[in-house]
What we know:
By secondary structure, the chain is of the alpha+beta class. Helix content is 58%, strand content 22%. A three-stranded antiparallel beta sheet has the order 1-2-3. A hairpin with a 5-residue loop joins strand 1 and strand 2 (65-74).
Amino acid sequence: MNRKSLIFVILALFLGAALGVGGTIGAQTFIFKTFDDSSKKSHAKKTGPLLPIGEFTVNLQGGAFLKTAITVQVSDVKAGEHLKEEDAFLKDRVNTVLADKSLADVQTTQAREKLRKELIEKLNEVAEDQITDVLFLSLVYQ
């Protein structure tokens, strides 16, 4: 193979590789668009201001006790200001829900998620559906 042919082959391989890479990137960007980006945005959890409710120590059913610190996430700043005034009612709901639980109701991850959902439901009775999440900052049981 002479020198001119060798340069032609190397140039053809380089050009083919460049077109292949460029075509693949172009196809992924424009033709094979996935809807993952849009679904991530629609399923992203709304974030709002955090409102500390307080620290709670309760006797659980069956003789165990639970000590936890709870903060709630509210829909907006205005809701947070309103709920600061309802602090006593929110604390009462938390104490009522927690005192009705047994040790098994707080030990596993699934049980805590169930407790979280129940707290959101009960707190929203006072908060008029302005609480979006309940955060357990600490959770100690014995």
